[in-house]
């Protein structure tokens, strides 16, 4: 139950984290969903693309125009352009608005688009998984607990992720209590697994 590599089998395709992706919330936070704004985004894999926000363009009240270039096998440079609609949805009973992309392939509102051979689209269109979806319960629990410990100042190699958390200086006690609760819930499957292996 939830042992090593017991999650969804790998499809041979890259995971969402390995792909060039575009997050609508990032664009919104950076003020890049204002009509007329434009920026060049760099990806850690070395790729870059130009993102321009436009209104009343290509049939959309608000959209982003994405331009990028590819180099073919004949070393010829080809420029590509894709227009993706942006919609705002009222949340918290109308007190706030949340932006969404309108995926051109699945025709659904989505928060993150990934680059594929036909341009930017939702991960389900290309069949990409998140890394966590390929992991078993135990591996996900181990990963979650490790992330919490790293967020609170990291941990040494001689420490276990199941060790008690140490409150960082300056962190509010209620915030720390929430992290402790998250950590306990994360390590619960690990404790159960160890108990089964140990025969307790």
Structure write-up:
The protein folds into 2 domains: 20-126, no CATH class; 132-198, no CATH class. The two termini are 16 Å apart. The longest helix has 26 residues, at 173-198. 26% of the residues lie in helices and 31% in strands. The radius of gyration is 22 Å and the shape is globular. By secondary structure, it is α+β, with helices and mostly antiparallel strands. The protein has a 6-stranded antiparallel beta sheet with strand order 2-3-4-5-6-7. Residues 1-5 have low confidence and may be disordered.
Lay out the secondary structure.
Blueprint: E1 21-23, H1 24-29, E2 38-42, E3 48-57, E4 60-71, E5 77-91, E6 96-102, E7 109-110, E8 112-116, E9 119-121, H2 123-126, H3 137-151, H4 173-198
List its traits.
alpha+beta, 9 strands, disordered N terminus, single chain, 2 domains, three-stranded antiparallel beta sheet, globular, 4 helices, 200 residues
């Amino acid at each position: 139950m939830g042992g090593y590599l017991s999650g969804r089998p790998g499809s041979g395709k890259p995971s969402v984290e390995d792909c060039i992706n575009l997050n609508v919330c990032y664009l919104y936070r950076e003020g890049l969903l204002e009509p007329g704004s434009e920026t060049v985004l760099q990806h850690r894999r070395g790729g870059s693309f130009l993102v321009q926000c436009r209104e009343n363009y290509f049939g959309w009240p608000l959209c982003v125009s994405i331009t990028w270039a590819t180099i073919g096998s004949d070393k010829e440079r080809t420029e590509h352009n894709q227009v993706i609609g942006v919609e705002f949805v009222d949340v918290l009973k109308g007190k706030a608005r949340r932006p969404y992309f309108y995926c051109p392939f699945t025709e659904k509102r989505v928060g993150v688009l990934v680059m594929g051979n036909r341009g930017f689209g939702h991960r389900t269109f290309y069949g990409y998984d998140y890394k966590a979806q390929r992991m078993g319960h135990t591996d996900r629990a181990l990963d979650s607990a490790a992330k919490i410990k790293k967020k609170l100042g990291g941990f040494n190699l001689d420490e276990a992720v199941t060790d008690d958390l140490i409150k960082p200086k300056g962190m509010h006690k209620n915030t720390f209590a929430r992290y402790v609760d998250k950590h306990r819930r994360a390590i619960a499957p690990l404790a159960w697994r160890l108990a089964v292996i140990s025969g307790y």
